[in-house]
Amino acid sequence: MKTAFFLILGIAILFLGYLFLQGTDSPEENTLSTGSNVSIVDGKQVVEIRAKGGYVPRISTAKPGIPTVLQVNTQGTFDCSSVITIPSKGISKNLPPSGVTEIELGSLEPGVLQGACGMGMYPFQINVQD
Ligand SMILES: [Cu+2]
After folding, report:
1. Which pLDDT belongs to residue 97?
2. 121 CA to centre of ligand 1 in angstroms
């Protein structure tokens, strides 16, 4: 009788441990894997962000060594995030109030690519890592 109790208790602990590991594993995997706003289509990497009162997602994760396009979506964007800049690449672009703007970034080097609105008050970044 006592043996059965401890057996069941043991199984319960193992099961809870399994659930716990699953729970802690997946968020970690998400931050390491390519973000859901980043896709690779026909050998081209597309990083999608939305511009309106800032940039969403503010942090994207992309892979190096792939020709990359930053696809910026606007919808009723009349604030200053309608001017997007990536200083290290000499990029400054006016976005339409609504629409999709593609900005060629070329093949990215590992590291962090910083961008911001025209005034520098709304930052965003692309973490470039394998
Ligand atoms: Cu601004």
Report:
1. 98
2. 5
Amino acid at 130: D
Nearest to 122 by CA among 35, 51, 60, 62: 51
> How many A from CA of 27 to the centre of ligand 1?
31
- The pLDDT, as a whole number, for residue 14 is 52
Write down the pTM of the prediction.
Answer: 0.73
10: pLDDT strictly greater than 90: no
> Residue 84 C-alpha to ligand 1 middle, in angstroms?
9
Architecture, CATH, for domain 38-128: Sandwich (2.60)
Sheet holding 83-86, edge to edge: 59-62, 123-128, 111-117, 83-86, 91-94
Q: Identify the CA nearest to 47 among candidates 57, 110, 85.
A: 57
Domain boundaries, the chain: 1-32, 38-128
Residue 45, beta-bridge partner list: 40, 68
